[in-house]
Queue: 2 jobs
Job 1
Amino acid sequence: MALAMALAKPLAMLLPCPCVLCGQHGREALCAPCRAQFFSQAESRCPVCADPLPPGCTVLMCGACVTRRPSYDATVAATAYALPWDRLVLELKFGGQLAHARLFAQLLAEAVRALPAFTVPALLCPVPLGPGRLAGRGFNQALEIARPLGRMLGIAVAPRLAERVQETSAQSKLHGGRRRANVAHVFAVPDRALVEGRHIGIVDDVMSSGQTLGELAAVFKRHGAARVTNMVFARTPPRHS
C-alpha cells in the first residue's frame, strides 16, 4: 500500500489530463494557452474587498471600504466570477467536479504569493455549510478548496473553527438587505481560544456581496481575532453584488 501511494503521484504527473477549459491533453489541469488567455493577475483590486479599481488608480482602497469599513481586513481573489471560471465554479458546487477545487486552490495560492508583503493567516477556515445543505450536496466546496490551499501555503486548516448554527436561503437568490438579514446570527465559534489574537483566513469559492464573509469575520472579531482575511477563488463584478 505504501509503495502504491509513493508511486501514485509521479505516475499521475506522467499521464495526460484534459485541460478543464479546452480539453487539450497535457500534464496540467489548465493548459498554458488557456492560462495565458483567461487567467491574469494584472487587474488592480481593492485590498480590502477585492472589487476592481479603475486603471491607473493609486488609492489604497475603494470608496465603499473607506466610507464603511467591512469587518474583514483584506480579501484576496484569484480571478473574476465571469466566463469561463463561473462555469467551473458551478461544476464544482453543483456537479461534484471536486478536481476543480485543487485548480482553484492552485490559482488562489499563486494570487497570494504575488502580493507583496502579504501577511499569512495562522489558520484557514472554510465557510461552513448548514447540516441540511451539506447532507444534500455531500461536500463543502469551500473545504475542498481550503485543504489543498493550506498544503500549498503551509497553513493549518481548521474546518470546525466556525459552525453554521441555522440553515439559510442561498445568497445568490437574494439582494440588498435581504442578503444581510439572511446571514445575520448564523455563525458561531465553538472555541474562542483558537481564534483569540490570531489572524484567520476565511476560504470560499465565490465572493459576491460579501455579506456572508462579513458576518463570519464579525463573529471572529467578536471572539478576539486580531485580523481576518478572505481568500476566495472568484469575485463577482460589482454590478452582480
Job 2
Amino acid sequence: MNRSLRFASAFAILLILVLLVNLTWVQAFREDQYANNPLNQRGFYEMKSIPRGQIATGGMVLASSSQDGDGFYQRSYPSDDPAAFVPVTGYLSDQYGASGLEASYNQVLNGTDPGLFTSRWMDTLTGKETAGANLELTLDPQMQQVAHQQLTGNGYEGAVVALRPSTGAVLALASSPGYDPNALVDPATASQAWEQVTQAPGNPLINHATQDTLPAGSIFKIITTAAGLTNGYSADSQLTGAPEITLPGTTTTLTNYGGQACAGGGEVSLETAFALSCNTAFVQMAVDVGTDAFRSTAEAFGVGENHDLGLPTSPGGLGDVADDAALGQSAIGQRDVTMSALQAAIMAATVANDGRRMEPYVVDKITGADLRELRTADPKEVTQAVSPEVAAQLEELMLASERNTAGGRAGIASKTGTAEHGDEGTPPHTWYVAYLPDSDVAVAVVVKNGGGMGTGATGGRVASPVGRAVLDAAGGA
C-alpha cells in the first residue's frame, strides 16, 4: 500500500473513531440537552404516537387516550365529574404541560419507565404495539365524589382527605376550588381555560389537600393530649378550667373560646377539657410536659414531613417553640403550627391504627396494557407514634368529643378545630378530624375562612357535617 493510501485509511479510521466518541458522548451524557429538550419536537410526537396508559379507580376510568384523525393520541378525562378527581389525576396538556399523577408517573404512563423494560422488550419481540402502563388508584369513587360535592356544593374553599388507617391507602382526596381538566387538554379551549383557571380566586391549580398548610387550631390538641398521656397524664387528671391563663414569662393572657370558663371554672378532668376543647387546660398541660416531649410527639405523628404520593405536598410544622409562652400557644394549634388536610388525616388515622403511623399512598397497582400486574403497593409502617394504650385513651376522648359536638353521632371518634388567622375580623379556618373505629376509615376536613359563616364559624358547625357525609359514603370502603 502506497503512502497516500495509508494516509487516507488512517484518516478515515480517525474520523470513524471521532464519530463513535461523539455519538457515545451525545447518547450517554447529552440526552437531556438534545433528546429531552423542549424545543426538540421529535420526543413530543413520539409520545403522542403511543397510547398512554389509563388511570382508573374502583372500575371507573379517570384518564384515557384516544387516537385522532392524524394518528396521534389525545388525552381525556371521561368520568362524569372529572373536576372531582383532578386533584389526584392532574392533567396532561400539549400547551401547559402536566400535573398530578400525569406528571409524576409520566414515564410509567407513556411506557418509558426503566421498570417496564422487560414488558417493552416482550412487546417488541411479539410485534405488539408499544403502549404505556396503567395506574390503578386506591380512591373510593363514591367517597371522592361526595367529598368534592360537599365542598363545591356549599361553595367552600378547602379540602377533604380520607385514609384507610390500617394501610395508609388514600380513599378520598378532594380540593376546592377546582377545575375541569378536559378544558385544559382540548386545543380548542385550552388557552381560554388556562386564563380562567389561573385568574380564578382561590388558586384552583393548587392542591389544597396536600399543599395548603394552615393553622390547625384545636384538632392539634390530639397531639398535645398524646404527649400528656405518654408522660403521666390520664383522662382523670385535673387541669384548670379558668376562662383565661397567663402565658409563662409574659403578661399576655390566652382565653378559652368566647372567653368562657370551662365547665364552670375551677379544675376539670382532661376528659372534660378535651370534650369541651378548653384552651387553658391544654396550655397548662403542655407547659408541664415540656417542649421536648411536645415536639417529639408531633414529629412521631408526622408533623413537618413530606409524603411521596406522586402529588405535590407541603410539610407544615411547629415553627420555633422558643419558650414556654410559645409552647402554650402551640399546644392549641396556634402561633406557628400549620398542617395540611393530608397531615390532619394521618394524625387521626394514626390514633385509629393503635398508634401506628402508616405512609399514605394513592397508587395501588401498575398494570400493563394487557392488565397484567407489574407492581403492587406495599403498605409501609413509618413508626409507632404512641403506644396502643395511649391510642385507646385518645379514642375514648375523641368519642366523648363527638358527643359534645353539634350533630354528633355515636360511634364516631372526632375532634373539631377553629383556627384563628389574620386580624380579628377575619373568619377562622374550621377543621374536623374523625374516624370510624369499626370501619377502618379516617377523615380530615378543612374549610377555609369560615365557609361563609363569618367570624362565628366553628369546626362543629361548618366542617363536621362534611366529614360525617364522607364517613357515611364509606360503605364498603
